[in-house]
Amino acid sequence: MQLAYNLAQKGCGGVNPNPLVGAVIVKNDRIIGEGYHEIYGGPHAEVNAFRSAKESVEGATIYVTLEPCSHYGKTPPCAQAIVDNKIARVVIGMLDPNPLVSGRGVKLLQEHGIDVESDFLSAELSQMNRVFLKFIQCKKPYVVMKTAMTLDGKIASRTGDSRWVSNEQSRARVHELRNELIGIMVGVDTVIADDPILTTRLAGNKKGRNPIRIVVDTQARIPLDSKILNTANDAKTFVAVTSAAKQNKLDEINALGNEVLIIKEKDGRVDLNQLMQVLGEKGIDGILLEGGATLNYAALEAQIIDEVHAYIAPKIIGGKDAKTPVGGEGIQVMKDAVNLQNIRFENIADDILIIGDVVY
């Protein structure tokens, strides 16, 4: 199962909004086939494992990280493929919460006399597929807030200079996240200040996937000559506005190959919860939030953030007017602070990365 887990991770960045799945076929204590779900719409892990087998799989055991599907979607059901290939035993890492599967795969296998065992490495597999699990259950994207700050909690100097707070290795790690998550979200102030392109650049010239770009822009202030609006061939861009935006500006944004999303207003801003619902309906299962202080606070206040990645650099820059990762009005008393749990630490050269799950 550990090998199947390792295989599943190879699909990272290619299968969204499907889950990461790996499969290993064992016969007479020998591995005779292995595979993973490589790309959305392509064969599932079990089918790839069958195709890789160099001998008959009849009577073998297949280890698969997620309950085999039993419904027709982009591909035929994997549970039926297991039956057709005369597998004798199936070991499942975790059951699939997808309402279209949810125990039906196991039932089909058992009805055909196949021995089924489940719940192996379920905690690790749930963590690996946390984006899929939230999306399939809530129909909203899993949101990761990423920020990089100095030791004294600043994301830029008092003049606004932020190149670079974190080191090269940390920045490379962020590009891996961009490759893994299907969407990336910023506020319009970030676009105005930095004019970012928000594409993926992986180390070693590896081919990556550019995320769908989402700009939160209540009044459509985004400059028409910004890189984001003029690189539609590189990646799709959604600009989320409210009815306060002028229609002629929206028409110009659309004319450049982008898509405007008109979202209801809440407290004079884009309603982030409705935006998440709309993005979920468009198949966006995960978002990397690279917002500034204002959007980060609004996202925490709206309780849309699931996970935080905080890069801390061993630098001190001071400045009472230097920007911090989270702005807004802030809390009044410490007991109202947003807490993190399941904390993980990583040393990335001389930076420290803290990862935690948000508790509301």
From TrEMBL:
Pathways per UniProt: Cofactor biosynthesis; riboflavin biosynthesis; 5-amino-6-(D-ribitylamino)uracil from GTP: step 3/4; Cofactor biosynthesis; riboflavin biosynthesis; 5-amino-6-(D-ribitylamino)uracil from GTP: step 2/4
Lineage of origin: Bacteria, Pseudomonadati, Bacteroidota, Bacteroidia, Marinilabiliales
Cofactor binding, per record: Binds 1 zinc ion.
Native species: Ancylomarina euxinus
UniProt keywords, alphabetically: Hydrolase, Metal-binding, Multifunctional enzyme, NADP, Oxidoreductase, Riboflavin biosynthesis, Zinc
Substrates-to-products reaction catalysed: 2,5-diamino-6-(1-D-ribitylamino)pyrimidin-4(3H)-one 5'-phosphate + NAD(+) = 2,5-diamino-6-(1-D-ribosylamino)pyrimidin-4(3H)-one 5'-phosphate + NADH + H(+); 2,5-diamino-6-hydroxy-4-(5-phosphoribosylamino)-pyrimidine + H2O + H(+) = 5-amino-6-(5-phospho-D-ribosylamino)uracil + NH4(+); 2,5-diamino-6-(1-D-ribitylamino)pyrimidin-4(3H)-one 5'-phosphate + NADP(+) = 2,5-diamino-6-(1-D-ribosylamino)pyrimidin-4(3H)-one 5'-phosphate + NADPH + H(+); 5-amino-6-(5-phospho-D-ribitylamino)uracil + NADP(+) = 5-amino-6-(5-phospho-D-ribosylamino)uracil + NADPH + H(+)
Gene Ontology molecular-function annotations: 5-amino-6-(5-phosphoribosylamino)uracil reductase activity; diaminohydroxyphosphoribosylaminopyrimidine deaminase activity; metal ion binding; NADP binding
Gene: ribD
CC cofactor: Zn(2+)
GO biological process, one term: riboflavin biosynthetic process
Assigned protein family: Belongs to the HTP reductase family. In the N-terminal section; belongs to the cytidine and deoxycytidylate deaminase family.
EC numbers: 3.5.4.26, 1.1.1.193
Active site: E46
Binding residue positions for substrate: S162, R178, L198, R201, E290
Binding site for Zn(2+): H44, C69, C78
Protein's name according to its UniProt entry: Riboflavin biosynthesis protein RibD
Subunit structure and binding partners: Homodimer.
Function statement: Converts 2,5-diamino-6-(ribosylamino)-4(3h)-pyrimidinone 5'-phosphate into 5-amino-6-(ribosylamino)-2,4(1h,3h)-pyrimidinedione 5'-phosphate.
